Fold each of these.
Amino acid sequence: MRSSRWALAAAAGVLAPALLLSTPALAASPAAPTAPVSAAASPYDDMDIDDLRVAIARTLGDPDSGRRVKQEANALLDSGTAEEMRSWLKTGYRLAQAEDDSVALATILADPDSGRRVTAEINQLLDANDPDAMRAWLETGYRLAQAEDDRVAISRILADPGISDALRAAAGAALDDNTPEALRYFLETGRYEIDNG
């Protein structure tokens, strides 16, 4: 029995290359090397210098553009080549925006009125150093974190037994509305209008 297994194994070893090479898929000539898959084409690749200038000028009109973005964009508009503009729009803009976002986060963090939630989230963002997360937080997360801190601040005002009935009613209305805008308005403006009114 053992000798027949060895014979079958030896025969399979001898015949395997011949059988494999005779099959259509493997017997065909080797496939030509494929071109490497390139990264997705950028919308800036086909733009001429005038279109590149317009794209860069748009970054200057963006209210989120900070000092670094504006400085680099203006320098490119003054004396940049088409290739420099294209390269900046593809990668440099994102890097400059990330630096501006880091400065914006540090400025918010330095504000003594920044609450616990805002401070904690900024510290996490700065530790992670992820430009996309910073941008997303500045666009949407900041508003939500600030709203939570504002709710706490308004609750502290309501906890003061000496506040006026008008201030208590306005604080309660802001909490009932519960939108970030209503909470912020009450803390920045509304409570002072009542105290002074």
Amino acid sequence: MGTGRSAEIRIYGFDCEGKAWSMHPDPLQVCTSKVPDHGFVWAHVDGWTPEGRKWLQSAGMEPFVLEAMLAEETRPRCTVHGDIALMNLRGVNLTPGAEPEDMISLRLYVSEHIVISTQIRDLQAVDDLMDSLDRGAGPASPGDLIARLALRLADRAEPVVAALNERADNLEDAVDAPEGPGRAERAELADIRRESILLRRYMFPQRDALSTLEIEDLTWLSQRDRSRLREATERVTRLAEELDAIRDRAQVVQDQITDLRAETMNRQMLILSVVAAIFLPMSLLTGLLGINVGGIPGAGSPTAFWLVCLLLVVIGVLLGWLFRRLGLLGK
């Protein structure tokens, strides 16, 4: 099957058996084209290029629909207007050098005979689906197309979530190591928490959007479509729950690091306190012997200095033994 598409606009026609063919990108031809019974058309448009925006404006959509398709900021959702569904989905950003949690939006206009999707950046899940069309494995209905898109989005997100899980495992091992966590581990912990929170921010709304479409009373959704949508919903739910678990594990690691740092600080403060307590009576004794008044014992004795030193040593040994018995010093 030839591509017959530009980089900004890609048009496919489908019959009820999933057979796909490319179509001319003329919006009027697409919106008024005759497809076989139960067939439909999918138009995928880059809405952030002049050609793509012009195509959308010429497609005859309602103003509020056009506004939703070109909105700059979106969150996953599903809104039904009569027999039309408007959806926003998100996929991980797998562009080299990009952050996966910087998720790319996919806006969808879905009706019985036409599906229009727009994106602002390249989304590999969409490319995966189009590659499957080139192999002859196409969706049989608009609902099937949405389910396949959602499943492809989940497929692309799974390795990212698995990598976060592995990083959390390595971080837990580093915390349990004898040398304890260092500055690099603390920076890694902050990065894991940030990524999991940002990914989770879109996963749960995406689950709700797919679930909403599944339960809506739309005539063009078959029982098979609803089953596929339910499967996609469960996949997204599992990813969201894994992100929840990663976030909770990161919080546990954070608590461990905080406890270790507090324990280290307490130990250091204890050592300083013990040292101060040992030298306090010695300082008192030497201070008394060093005052510039008459009557200091041993002032005229040549052995008095060594006797005082011996007394200080005895006091230090006795205090050390006492603190060890009290458990303030290590065994």
Amino acid sequence: MKVYDGSTETGSEPKQERLKVGIAEYEVTTSGADLTTSGLGSCLGVAMYDDVAGVAGLVHVMLPSAAEVDDANKAKFADTGIELLVEEMEREGAAKRRIEAKIAGGSDMLDFSENGSGIGVRNTEQVEATLAELGIPIVSRDVGGDHGRSLRLDGNSGDLTVKSANKGSQVI
């Protein structure tokens, strides 16, 4: 949905609606709104898009599996958060067979583990496994490293812009 302020003095295009996705939250749009999230360190942003239905969704997951922790917030976990997002997208007209995913985050910024399997790596592995179980392909990714990221999912095109300190902005 386009947000019009009623003003045409500057001759600029109307601003695109923007929905903020917080940590352990998700949003779905059918109006072409931009979905944004920030503060992705070891967390992962999972952006999904069905171009035929025009349905886009974004979830900001913190931890790999709901089975590891007793918490009612399904969006907090990679496994249940992705399932929740897919269900909501299907309610809005998306078809699982058409949904494609893009993922970003999963850094190990404060990784003190000896085996290199910090929370960022485990989050990425769980996201990949959950999407594979659901038959949803990952068409692009920007994961790992030791830097934070912010994301903007264009609800009209499915383009995912990743901003990070070491790479600047890039569309994946």
